[in-house]
Amino acid sequence: MEKMSRVTTALGSSAISGRTMFCHLDAPANAISVCRDATQVVVAGRNIFKIYTLEEEQFVEKLNLRVGRKPSLNFSCADVMWHQMEENLLATAATNGAVVTWNLGKPSRNKQDQLFTEHKRTVNKVCFHPTEVYMLLSGSQDGFMKCFDLRKKESVSTFSGQSESVRDVQFSMKDYFTFAASFENGNVQLWDIRRPDRYERMFTAHTGPVFCCDWHPDDRGWLATGGRDKMVKVWDMTTNRAKEIYCVQTIASVARVKWRPERKFHLATCSMMVDHNIYVWDVRRPFIPFATFEEHKDVTTGIVWRHQHDPHFLLSGSKDSTLYQHMFKDATRPVDKANPEGLCFGLFGDLAFAAKESLISSDANRKPYPGGDRRYPIFFFKKPDPTEQFAHVSSALSVFETDLDSNRMDWFVKTAQLYLLCGKPFAELCDHNAKVAQELKRPQVSTTWTMLRIMFSDPANLTTPGLNHNLSKLGTLPLMNSFNMKEMSSGMGTESRLERSKGESRQDNIHLEPGNSHASNNNEENEETEGSEGQAEYMFCDAELDDDDLYSMENDNQAEEQEYTLPQEAFQLRHEIIDNPSAPEHLQQDKADSPHVSGNEAEVTCLTPIESFSLISISQPLFSPHLPASFFCPIVREMLTYYAEQGDVQMAVSVLIVLGDRIRKEIDDLTQEHWYMSYIDLLQRFELWNVSNEVIKLSTCSAITCLNQASTTLHINCSNCKRPMSNKGWICDRCHQCASVCAVCHHVVKGLFVWCQGCSHGGHLEHIMNWLKSSAHCPAGCGHLCEYT
User: Fewer CB within 10 Å, N side or C side of the chain?
Assistant: First the structure.
């Protein structure tokens, strides 16, 4: 702190001097306020209520207002305000719903003056009128605002916002009778203190709660608001409708906003959570803070400029139990660390590259960007004080465009629109999506869907194809437990056949010489083994097949035999039988000489594994009815990761939804959430809102399913009396009229309702469309020229 420089500011006859300094508090602070002459600051919280004197080198504790043997909840403060006209007058908002005023001129230790207990819940904000000494305004969690005359024992007027909790109230600096109130439902209301029955204006400022608002000290029409949507917005209230003129995007919920004195476009903000820093923004350059104060170690709860005409000193209190005075010259300037280089891809593959002009030599052949010359800074503030302007950094922007035909995303849009993700059996979904991918000339994706159907379908549900399929049609082959083969009457005994089948079953591959694996449907020649009637099953092999290599045999309708009936006469074995026999040498030689063995030794089953593939007849299934889903899950997981890494999150998410619980547990939740968010972002960029909503509904990630559940409340006014509808039904409790009657058929609208924003009349979507085809006037007869867009 000793390195900090000092500054002195002349303000009329007085002068403010000091440095960046801090002091430790006894407890976390909830709010702070400074007196009119900028020499004292009051700090209030749940367990602290003190006044400190601002000296040149340090804070000095002057007065502790928490006195008494039994401190009551009246000392537990959510907000504090020091009157800018009367230096001895303070007001606090208590967490028990009390509004308390304090008179520092009292000779006793207890400085409490008045106690108002009209609010039913916590009071969030108190505000003195800037010029009227005895007028105090409060806003509470109960949704009411009350105006107090400190010369009376109770409030003089109550304002009901017909809404949720009031988070902030602020008197206008220029309009004597006007004050603004912000609410948790995102609305901001403007009131006239002379008319407590109805607000003058209401508009929706943010998509979530509005935590704070502040009137500009110089421009009477500017109102700044901050909310949970991490935005600070500046509204022009001089027009008929509130107009948003500036918007600043921060990184956390905005808890406080205060305009900087003597600087028209500067305001300070602090966050409600996560971010501990205080930012000063120039609203004309909203993407980077003008200055940052990074001293606090916990959330900043209160900020106030030390003097209403001094822009150089900022006071702040925090949950880290510290009180700081920040000198503006000591602030961090984020723009000094900003990167002047940037790289970004466009939606259709265009590449934009920005770099310092000093790094890029002037190129006369460079094509200028049609959006305008970006080589010069958009904002440049010519002020004598260099600390009051942004650093002068200019970058040159180059745009590299791609051929539209080479990078078209039509396939993405059509795939998203045509894919089926639910509503049909799994096999049909896979077949449909494979067909869609095939029509869009994406054979790899189509094959992937086909393989997923084969892997995860119930084998009993697959259709039985005809005979003589080659390997390219393997995906549609029937699954079989056993097959009828022509009895191999010579060349090898039945015992050897049985022994070989048992041995080769452990290899999952049964081999038969190609060209001689002809099967017969003759039951007389097939007495030893009958075809079973059990569920079908695949048998796979690495060998390539020809049309004649694989036959699907008819199954007899007889019951499966319990055991084999071996013939009485055994054939003389030519070689020793082993568990995993290889082809005898003399047979391999015979095969080399003549691939088709004829005579009594035809149809022998001695081949090497790489030569062919065969199906044998057995009475007991060699495998389980079908492979469990867990067998394929590692492969499918790798496949989904591959598609995601290639940028095709559409395929990854679609398979994830269609497979459901079959694969979901194999992929961690964070990866799934990342895929979902990427796909939803792409869908929304292409304005595929219905598909995006369907994906959100079908997701099982809690972080995704809540995306379409936020901000779904619709606040409506009665079309007759123009007042807010408070009932859950469609009957207005004020005028007792139905608010949703169709202007064409005069029946209650129970489905889609469309209305004109100019005259508030409407009705059934179809009726209004048909009416406006032939007439431009409102069907209700009000004379308004309605337009359907």
Answer: C
pLDDT digits (tens, 9 = 90+) for 597-627: 344 443 334 444 444 444 444 444 444 556 7
- For residues 136-148, give the mean pLDDT: 92
Angle between helices 649-659 and 629-645 (to 10 degrees): 160
Please tell me the least confidently modeled range out of 178-192, 553-567, 728-742.
553-567
Nearest to 553 by CA among 610, 493, 616, 606: 616
Give me the percent of the chain exceeding a pLDDT of 70.
69
The per-residue DSSP string of 405-457 comes to GGG--HHHHHHHHH---SSS-HHHHHHHHHHHHHHTT-HHHHHHHHHHHHHHS
HSE on the CB side for 307, CA within 13 Å?
21
Q: Which of 5, 22, 24, 2 is nearest to 295 (CA)?
A: 22
Query: How far, in Å, CA of 523 to CA of 344, rounded?
Result: 73
Burial class (CB in 10 A: 0-12, 13-18, 19+), 24: exposed
What pLDDT, on a 0 to 100 scale, did the predictor assign at position 489?
38
d(CA 260, CA 746): 55
Contact 103, 119 (CB under 8 A): no
Give the whole-angstrom CA distance, residue 425 versus residue 131: 73
pLDDT at 711: 65
Which residues are 52's β-sheet partners? 41, 61
Phi and psi for 704 in degrees, rounded to 5? -95, -45
Q: DSSP state, 719?
A: T
d(CA 354, CA 342): 5
Q: Cα–Cα distance between 169 and 214 in angstroms, integer?
A: 9
Average pLDDT over residues 91-112: 89
Report the distance separating Cα 259 and Cα 173, nearest Å: 12
- Give pLDDT tens digits for 438-449: 999 999 999 999
Task: Give the phi and the psi of residue 694 in degrees, each rounded to 5.
Answer: -65, -40
Among 3-12, 99-108, 250-259, 633-642, where is mean pLDDT lowest? Answer: 3-12
If phi > 0 it is left, if psi is from -120 to 50 it is alpha, else beta; for residue 746 that is left
pLDDT tens string 44-58: 999 899 999 998 888
- Inter-axis angle of helices 649-659 and 443-456, to 10 degrees? 20
* Residue 225 confidence (pLDDT) above 60: yes
Mean pLDDT of the 311-318 span: 92
Secondary structure in 3-state letters for 194-234: CCCCCCCEEEECCCCCEEEEEECCCCCCEEEEEECCCEEEE
More confident residue, 209 or 580: 209
The Cα–Cα gap between 667 and 662 comes to 11
Neighbour tally for 318: CB within 10 Å: 25
Radius of gyration of the chain (CA): 41
SS3 146: strand
